[in-house]
Amino acid sequence: MPLRALDRRILSLAVPALGALVAEPLFVIIDSAMVGHLGATSLAGLSLASTVLTTVVGLFVFLAYATTATTSRLFGAGDRGGGLRAGVDGLWLALLLGTAAALLLWSLAPWVTGVLGADGLVSRASVAYLRASAPGLPGMLVVFAATGTLRGLLDTRTPFVVATAGAVVNVVLNATFLYAVGMGVAGSGLGTAITQTLMAVALTLPVALTARAEGVGLAPRRAGLGASLGAGAPLLVRTLTLRAAILATVWAATALGEVPLAAHQVVISLWTFTAFCLDALAIAAQALIGTALGQADAAAGGARAQDAAPQPDAPGQADQEPLLSIDAVLRRSLGWGVGTSVVTGLLLAVLSPWLPQLFTSDPQVVAAVVPALLVTATALPVAGAVFLFDGVLMGAGDGVYLARAGLITLVPYLPLTVAVHSGWPSGGAPGLVWLWAAFAWVFMGARVVTTGLRARSDAWRH
Questions:
Q1: Mean pLDDT of the chain
Q2: Which helix (H) or strand (E) holds 160?
Q3: pTM greater than the 0.90 cutoff
Q4: Number of domains, the chain
Q5: Rounded distance, CA 47 to CA 109, Å?
Q6: pLDDT of 16-50, one tens digit each?
Q7: Contact 13/283 with Cβ under 8 angstroms?
Q8: Is the CB of residue 167 less than 8 Å from the CB of residue 132?
């Protein structure tokens, strides 16, 4: 594929993927903006609760990444039915895991908030949000699996449409439950749960219809569920390391006091939103890398068959789609990722004095947000490279290495969170700046080194 055509293909996948990627952080931002005007206590409770919720949901993000890698490689090799079968298995696995996670979250919500150091009114607000949002967990996980299947089909537009509609519905429901019904912070959680369930239904329908059209059954298979879980297990470990870092960060922020914790919620919401925007390019790279590797598998299999018994050429999936160069996809995607992150970082820095006012009218919280936000803006180019390398290695199914690398990146970062929690080198709002400097530069820096070195090697290509 010519480079200009490859650029167009990357952007045609990345731009619609943006909508699906920002759905969850967009919901958190909407929740934060609406709840923030109820007061610092409600916002602090939401900070803890949303961190726990995104941690639980994030543990299962392998449902999207592993499904994308498997289906895109099978589709690239011409096995469309096999790819759809893997997608259906992923949907059933997501539903089962989501149901179990919802029950656990409902039961353990008070204990979890206590472990994170919350008490009093902050703890009550946090528990109320978690229990109201728990019924939406099955839908959240099904969204992952359905989105992964559609990405493998190189369809990122359907998730974009569904995510956009979901964001609108979420605003309406949250406003209704928060203000009209007067449910408080619990109303925000309930609105998000209903929205995620509706999104799951909307994304499952096209996968199911396509599978039936290809003659693929929709019933669950024990072997398929086991294969899906096995493919995602290393990515689960990798995700656990990421969530451990996030939880350690909010644990340290909690020790700094109510105002820094509320400010942390604003910063983490904006960081997550911008990071997921950058991750759209990584999703495009993941799908294209998987397709390119599948084409290479098909070409190698065809060459071996011709060596054994030469046959006339037959049209296949590799002939219908332009052949993709693995090296070209890597280079062009990295260029787009880093370039976009530089621009995003500049915008975030310029807008840092005004963005906090979208979330809170408390002058102390606003004052604590601005310097921490400037620190995050400087590290966004590093984050852009990290997400791109992650996407490439996930598309190649290199989950085992990503799991090991994730454990390594915790070694330099966790001691720094302990130091900030203890008040060193500073407490209060200045401590929040040190905390975000450690996260944005030390933790993300360790990730860019481990994933970048792997991406430069040839080990992930086989």
A1: 86
A2: helix 157-175
A3: no
A4: 1
A5: 14
A6: 887 666 666 666 677 777 777 677 777 777 778 88
A7: yes
A8: no
